[in-house]
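Table S5 (text form). Sequence records supplied for joint modeling of the two-component complex.
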Amino acid sequence: MRYGMVINLVKCVACYGCTVRCIEEHFLPPDMMWNKMLISETGVFPGAKKHIYPTLCNHCKDPVCAKVCPSGATQQREDGVVWVEADKCLGCRSCLVACPYQVRTYYSEEKEWFPGQGLTEWEKMREKLYPLRIGVVYKCNFCRERIDEAVKRGLKPGVDREATPACVNGCPAKARYFGDLDDPESEVALLISEREAVQLHPEHGTDPSVYYIAGIEEAPVTTTYYGVSIYDTSLAMTSKKGAIKAGAK
Amino acid sequence: MCGKGSATILDYHDPNRVNYPLRRTNPKKGLYEDPKWERISWDEAMDTIAEKMKAIREKDPRRIVWAYTPGPGTALKATQSIGGFFTVYGSPNIALGGAGTHCGAVAHHLGALVHAGWDILPDYRYNNFLIRCGGNEGVGGGRMAMTAVRQFAEARDRGQKTVVMDPIGYQAGGKAQEYIPILPCTDIAVLLAIANLIANEIGVFDEKYIRDKTNGPYLVGPDRKFVRDKESGKPLLWDENDGRVKTYDDPTLTWPAIAGEYTVNGIKCQPAFQLLRDHIKQYKLDWASRISTVPEDTIRRLAQQLVDEAKIGSTIEIDGVEVPYRPAGLCAYKGFQGHQNGFHQYAAMYLINSLLGNQDVAGGIVGSGTVRCLGHPDTGRPRFEPYASHDGMLTPAVWHTRTPWPPREPKGPEFINLLDLFSDSSFTPYPYAEDWEEIWTKAGRPYEPELFFFYGSNVVTNTCNPEIVANFLKKVPFIWSITTIHNETTEGFADIVLPETHHLESLEIWSSLGFFFNYPIGMDRWCFHLRMPTVVPKYERRDGMDILFDLAERIGFRDRLNEWIDSYLSIKEAKWEQAGAKDIGIRTETKEKDFPIVRPEENIPFQEVIDRTLKYNFGEDRGLEWFMEHGFITWDKKPEECYWRYHVAARIPIYYETHEHTRPKLKELCEKVGVEFDWDQWTALISYFPDVLYTEEPWPDSEYDLIAISHRDVLHTHRTSVQNPWVDAMSKTNPYTYNWVMHEESASRKGIAEGDWICVENLVGNKVLGRVKLTKLIHPNVIGGVGLGGWAKGRPIARGKGVRFNTLLRSNHKRICAITSSFESGARVKAYKVPEDKIDEMKKELHMEGANLEEVKKAAEEAAKEAEK
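The corresponding structure-token record, covering 1118 residues in total, follows.
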């Protein structure tokens, strides 16, 4: 049993649905995002390409963050979920430095989502439902509360909504999949093998549990660019002289 | 849901929300003014408004100008509720709200004529090849935005190919297999060249479609008008089967000619398609390439790909029904049509789709929203379908502004928004235009605006240059608004502001039977949902519909409002004309007089109206209680509902003959008020016209060597979203959202580096300051920005964020489409770096400073004290 996620980049449109659903689910404060969107560009005009990578904790099979944790706060469960036990965290931030994917955040002070206007009722609910403690490092926990609660009721993570991480449920493009990587019949395992899904930066050797189906292949550069200075603009650009009049035969 | 949608929970919690009725105590109005709000009672507020509106209604209801936003910032689907309220009240003077002056004036007009739909969408489920121009539908923009995202994602994943031809390539282009940079509003040249290639060179097009479903076979005389039957006045066609002329509706008509030349009643005439086919021969590849900067071989390849992928002549069996299969086409929207040459540009795109025969058939381009529905199997309701009217042409069953067909004659102007004059327009930028005052004076000032109402919209920042909007608003003696949160317009100009419930606090049906935003695309099952409250409204916030009912009772037209609501929600007659507003159109007599939902004399709350509407449509046992438990109802869609084209006996225009009739009359009326259009645009033949952006200033040999355009970012809608702290946090992580975006090559030529503060300045010196993000995914002659930014004190999160694009837009008759009044949404600009030491000074000059934390804290303390009272 090892929970994992597949993100299909062909389908993702970078709508930030995952990012916001995660904030909502865990009552996250400002400056802390467990789901992030990385945006970049490569290539040369006009064959250039925009890349979008929704990222989260990779719940690595070999989590370097857990190895460097001096207090044992960062732990890996049998189902592969890597989580932080807040009571044990010393706030030393070794994990923050060690994580090759930079998905951890140190919670240094309480901030308001509406600065200077107090905590909203929603933010006050954090204390009851998802308390965060100053001086602790936080990150995505694969919505383990959802998984645990639902599994108790006989539901299957990745199949039953209630047992599935919020970011997967909320994705409007249905680009995210969740399930047991060790089960060869699971949707995630099948997608990884059929679609040749890849891990981010496997060279770090941590064996991430989050896989990506690569985006649309870059098209061959078929368009040539007329430089700014060499436009022949005699028709469109200057008055109507030379422009073909409507109805002219 | 997208991030923006999920984030609306924080809009509900926003401590800046309007909680009580407020009155302005600062008599001075204008941009950047502090309103100095004072809390008043609901009774006082409603009495004041009702008294004024009652007096105006007795004098001339047209003295009221109204605006709304059909956006996420409003709980109600304002298009129906606000549009119905004011048209019944008697004012046709709608001014644009949050959707902006370039909101679909072309797209909706042609959408009605060609698809009987508000907009168009690709039939993603079956489409294999799509060319998308100027729009971000399917990647976060447009109608049924997230349904489109899901469907388009599925399509991409199965290998569907999309080519994006757009000035900007980092939105839709970022998800396409191919991105083709193009100069703004030159698509028309490429599209006409493609049409020419398909019709005249490749020679493969859907002849059956042109023959049976368009006005291509209608005979046209030397005067460019249809040759008509002497008795009935109906257009004539030549039946090749028996060599005779017949009216379009002659039951013996089998094979109307689309080519050749004929003599009818002594008049030499040709089928419209023959005329059009010859006319577009002038649009050659090299010419189109020079204008658009798209290479010749690319244009040729696209034409061939469209023809190859469209599989003309093929059919597909879906759920046992055989329908035409055309899995290729072109789809465009806002940025593409928001131009001074918008009509012909959009019509050129439709012409290609008509040549491919892909309209409202499997895999092609389908009309969005409420086009044809045969109803739930248990009740046969809701039921609506398009039909043929004047000249046998397609007419929508349901519409949301003035219905574009049958055509009407230009009149007046006696409408403040000039809609009576611009008879083919659904929206005009008037009265927010620099020449409105002059036109109105030349028209003899039929009456003066006395009241302005706006619902949820922020007209000052969301339409064009704020000074232009302010100049109009300053003239109006009384202004009031219903809103959830303040904005630049309430603070600068409103006399009274009423607090509305957030959508999480309200029950409403307009977004379900509200027709055009929510119906499933293509063969997705029908779904009828109900928006339900999750919390009880706090403070003194009231539901917008209850406010309108209260007001209608106080003014004394609740009976007529009930009639309209009954008609609309039962879909007996679901058009504005039904409201019978003076001169807005012909008032249609209600077909049934039994009032199945609400009788004129009934004084019931809107909740009861919702219950009855649900029962009327889905049966006695499926009222409000049932929906509260189940949330929504779905049922299978029939292929003939989705792919209705060959199931509805109506034709569509490829030849716009009414233009030839309208031109002389319109010209005469316009001359009287000093409006001079490019009258050549009023031609029946789809033709090339250069946009004003390239004619108002030499191009490209000018220091104004860039064209500024704004685009829809996935994170933002109508600026309402900038005040949301989560959306703000996301925006800060997206380099394309809050910054000017320009091509790195153009930037380097101007000495501009990544992250510099730059000033973008239009031809009359309006300036917009912003940081710059350099990219390769934009045309080198284009600079892009998401229209955001603002200075309202009541929106501390939004304040000073993003690029205030609309400041660059000057509205006047020279900058609107001659036919549809679509507003030119681009601007000729120059861009230059602002030295580090001048930035603060310039920010101050342009009112761009962010919120002051101390001020915000102080205001929060005062608000807390007020709440304790």
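Note: Chain B is about 30% helix and 15% strand.
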